[in-house]
């Protein structure tokens, strides 16, 4: 089966393509320029693989959480491409993709993913490898204040875990003592952003389980549904 995966949910922009057992990918850190980079990256991997969009079996997209604008760009591009080629789609969590990459790169099977969500919060979830070698969330993805993360994960995490995501560096002081006795990698995480390569693995599994939907049903997952603005002093 031939699939294309794309993601624009964070500062990283990436695409990955699997065609006849071969993989092609692009990855770039390009904050605030995803709308300019994503389509050319998709064209590049399709041309490299010498395949057309209509020859694919499905499309996989990063559904969030992450940047509101980035998530919307990714979902919008996915819908447009899927409509044009009449392809089914599946969404993949950006947090799950980072956890999956920790398994792919480092063989880690228990991971806490935490992305800086701004507004002094982190998007987070705890993942454990399942029987299909896919990292699965052990509770609903959430947005949490860093100093409350340990409380949020209490009773869920009881064994050594691997940390991934920008949240661990962005709120290093507040997170330094959280579950420190269980954290495997004390230094800055080597996986800071999600990648389409990991989404490709997860998405294929979802398609195999019959979770593909039509383009019109491609939905973002913001986790934080609203943004509240605090009035600055003197304003």
Automatic annotation (TrEMBL):
Record's keyword terms, sorted: Cytoplasm, Transferase, tRNA processing
GO BP terms, alphabetized: tRNA threonylcarbamoyladenosine modification
Keyword hit for Transferase: yes
Annotated GO MF terms: transferase activity
GO CC annotations on file: cytosol
UniProt domain Gcp-like: residue ranges: 29-174
Pfam families linked to this entry: TsaD (PF00814)
Main location: cytoplasm
Localisation per UniProt entry: Cytoplasm
Keyword field contains tRNA processing: yes
Family listed: Belongs to the KAE1 / TsaD family. TsaB subfamily.
NCBIfam families xrefs: T6A_YeaZ (TIGR03725)
PANTHER family named in the record: TRNA N6-ADENOSINE THREONYLCARBAMOYLTRANSFERASE (PTHR11735), TRNA THREONYLCARBAMOYLADENOSINE BIOSYNTHESIS PROTEIN TSAB (PTHR11735:SF11)
Record-given protein name: tRNA threonylcarbamoyladenosine biosynthesis protein TsaB
Species assigned in the record: Colwellia ponticola
